[in-house]
Amino acid sequence: MSAEEQIDNKNITNDDILGDEIPRALQDTLCALCYRLLELTPPHGRFKLQFPGSHPVSLNCDNLLLLRQRYYYSTWKADGTRYMMLILRDGCYLIDRNFWFRRVQMRFPLKNIHDGFHDMTLIDGEMIIDKIPEVGLKRRYLVYDLMALNGSPKVKLPFSERWKLIEEEIVRPRNHERKKYEVEGRSNHVYRYDVELFGVRRKDFWLLSTVTKLLREFIPRLSHEADGLIFQGWDDPYVNRTHEGLLKWKYPEMNSVDFLFEMSSGNRQLLFLNEKGKKKLMHGARINFGDVEDINAISGKIVECSWNSDEDCWVYMRIRTDKKNPNDINTYRKVLRSIKDNITEELLLGEITEIVHLPMYADRIAHLHHRRH
């Protein structure tokens, strides 16, 4: 069995806390380093630095038009846990949505192994858990973007080039060394990849013309959960925080909002969002917890909810252990708009069938096919 297939026999979940805690002073230093690598200016004063990762917006009838105006590729939307990763010479750090760092033991050799290891490389991705038949569970980190390479910011490069660098500079050199050590077996005393917490792969992106196959053939065969599609501008730079051109489409029944849930002293069920850094009570909002027995135990937690239009209420899906804050009011409005527009799979595929015949797409797709043959 290869290192990539080694399975931890314990029951692993997306809620597991990965890595080791680090001192607060180091947290602050690494936050500032990430801002520098992303070419961001830290806010003045004593403001807490916010998670700078790019976030998609929900697909609606208006921004669907972007697919006609810019060249997009697509990928599946994995239902995992979002992490950025900072790779330094003395260690690797997973960065969660709360902009909190935890150290993990990983190894990332450079393309020329004699040059040593990555230092000040920043990547973006999601942690998923694959269910491998007759083997068990395997945690994997799917890398879908690269923002800095050995101290050199890459945020202004088009996505197509950043995505190519992930394979050439990070994944391939690591896999090459891993396989070399596997062949050496017991005689290898340098490093054991098989004891790492997770594997690392580049996430695949495909031409927009393959979306039907992606939805109907690829996603049903995935070994981990997926809840929709991501549409990535092929020529886009890396955009911090909300990226209006990075689009997510979720299966209509899985469109969701993350609320802060609290039980009041009078046993009233309250839902809160975030507005300008403060809690905003959603007056009149109702939530159905289904067969949850102890609702009080959920008070104070961030809960992900889908919308039930028949009952005119929110339906509890799960606790978001990876988040400390609810969605912003603007995110909530965009999700509501997406729910209202109700872009079904049939409608989406019909639209894309038209789009890929536009000259902008047809010419580039034909050029790609010509290069391959």
TrEMBL record:
UniProt GO BP: 7-methylguanosine mRNA capping
Domain of life of the source: Eukaryota
Known EC number: 2.7.7.50
Predominant location: nucleus
Keywords of this entry: GTP-binding, mRNA capping, mRNA processing, Nucleotide-binding, Nucleotidyltransferase, Nucleus, Transferase
Residues covered by the mRNA capping enzyme C-terminal domain: 255-349
Enzyme class: transferase
Pfam families: mRNA_cap_C, mRNA_cap_enzyme
Record-level Gene Ontology MF annotations: ATP binding; GTP binding; mRNA guanylyltransferase activity
Reactions that this protein is recorded to catalyse: a 5'-end diphospho-ribonucleoside in mRNA + GTP + H(+) = a 5'-end (5'-triphosphoguanosine)-ribonucleoside in mRNA + diphosphate
InterPro entries: mRNA_cap_enzyme_adenylation (IPR001339), mRNA_cap_enzyme_C (IPR013846), mRNA_Capping_Enz/RNA_Phosphat (IPR051029), NA-bd_OB-fold (IPR012340)
GO annotation, cellular component aspect: nucleus
Gene3D superfamilies: DNA ligase/mRNA capping enzyme (3.30.470.30), Nucleic acid-binding proteins (2.40.50.140)
Keyword match Amino-acid biosynthesis: no
Tagged with keyword Transmembrane: no
Protein name: mRNA guanylyltransferase
Organism of provenance: Carex littledalei
